[in-house]
Specification:
Immunoglobulin-like; 13 helices; 402 residues; five-stranded mixed beta sheet
């Protein structure tokens, strides 16, 4: 009987790992309806849980995630360096997860939006996709799970159908131009991708960001010097000026967001009954704000965790405020009722218009949602980009300030 009580469940999965340069104190494994998480100790972890069947899950560390595929009974060990993430992750004990990691690296090398995409013929681009597909099929022969293999091929075929469609549309747009314009278009697209102005809004200070914008503009002008179509050049110069102005204004917004410990910029929005609430309405309580919309997948993914967070802190000096940016008010009202959303549900409506951003979206430079923020009992900023409800870090931050 003692043996029976201590025998490992055949459906139990055990995952150990080593995280280099960890972001935060936890790791999580996110399934369709469940999240398994544990703490890191000196960058290492061990976690066990039971699953009924093989399934895709996501490994999450910080805000980054990567795909895994696990089978009941597996003992898996993973290693990862978060500074490069998918480029460094390795597995032992999970052939399917190892395949997914290798597939990612192959896709990076495949460069599906490189020279063949912009300059090649439809036939040349098709040949490059087929070559990649053949390599994937060859690697899948080492995987015993036929369902997994079939799923991977099916998903890749759907992805490549989309790529073909995009390349065909691009070819149609560029067919009236010569090679000079086509080369410029490709180099501009690659420069846009490499510049990563969205990511650098917070990563770079004001001076460095402005320098990056000037370098971007200078490089594009060099590219345009190789183009002979004067009408095309004029259009691109106008577009370039608008792009630089756009990112410069966004950076100014980011810089004007109140910092930790500074007075928060208030807001006032109505609930479903038309009652208006402001940040000042909650004086004496912590305020955890969720800016979201019904059409936003990641926003909806956080709802179960937000409900649990609210339940766990019920009766404490904290209020949970969700502010919807839905232009469709009826869709918002329907979800609030059907999903029995808790906390205080307010409606801002779309804050993006011809004249730019307004309201809380502008005041806190919210260019993507969901965005979570935490304000102190006396109306100061604790974090204008707070951890999500699905992370352990938000509980640590709340507990510290209650």
């Amino acid at each position: 009987m003692l043996f029976a009580c201590t025998e490992k469940d055949p459906n139990q999965v055990t995952i150990t790992g080593k995280v280099t340069n960890p972001i935060g104190e936890t790791v999580a494994f996110v399934a369709n309806d469940t999240t398994y998480s544990t703490n890191l100790t000196d960058g290492t972890f061990k976690i066990s849980f039971v699953i009924d069947s093989a399934q895709y899950i996501s490994f999450k560390q910080g805000q980054e995630t990567t795909a895994m595929y696990i089978t009941p009974g597996e003992d898996i060990h993973l290693t990862i360096d978060t500074e490069l993430y998918d480029e460094t992750i390795t597995y032992t004990g999970s052939p399917a997860s190892s395949f997914l990691a290798e597939k990612y690296r192959l896709q990076e090398k495949g460069d599906f939006f490189g020279e063949k995409y912009y300059l090649g013929t439809t036939e040349e681009y098709e040949a490059s996709l087929n070559e990649f597909m053949d390599e994937i099929k060859q690697k899948l022969t080492a995987i015993n799970d036929s369902v997994f293999a079939a799923t991977e091929i099916s998903q890749l075929e759907k992805t490549f159908t989309y790529y073909r469609s995009r390349q065909a549309k691009l070819a149609k747009i560029l067919e009236k131009y010569g090679d000079d314009v086509r080369n410029y278009y490709m180099k501009k697209e690659l420069l846009d991708r490499a510049s990563d102005f969205y990511g650098n809004l917070k990563a770079l200070d004001q001076a460095a960001f402005e320098t990056a914008l000037k370098d971007y503009e200078s490089t594009l002008k060099e590219y345009l010097a190789e183009v002979t179509d004067k009408e095309y050049i004029a259009g691109q110069m106008k577009s370039m000026a608008a792009t630089v102005k756009h990112w410069s204004e966004r950076k100014a917004m980011v810089e004007s967001v109140p910092k930790e410990g500074e007075d928060a910029i208030g807001f006032t929005y109505p609930d479903m009954e038309g009652n208006e609430y402001s940040l000042s309405s909650f004086a004496g309580k912590l305020v955890y704000v969720d800016v979201w919309a019904t059409w936003c997948g990641p926003c909806k993914g956080e709802i179960p965790y937000l409900k649990q967070l609210e339940e766990d802190y019920h009766g404490k000096d904290i209020v949970f405020v969700s502010i919807s940016t839905d232009s469709n008010k009826e869709a918002w009202e329907k979800m609030v009722v059907e999903e029995k959303l808790g906390g205080l549900q307010l409606h801002a409506g779309s804050e993006w218009g011809e004249n730019g951003m307004t309201g809380i979206s502008r005041d806190y430079a919210i260019f993507g949602i969901p965005r979570f923020m935490l304000f102190s009992k006396d109306g100061k900023v604790i974090s204008s980009d707070a951890p999500r409800p699905s992370s352990q870090e938000i509980r640590t931050l709340i507990d510290k300030n209650l």
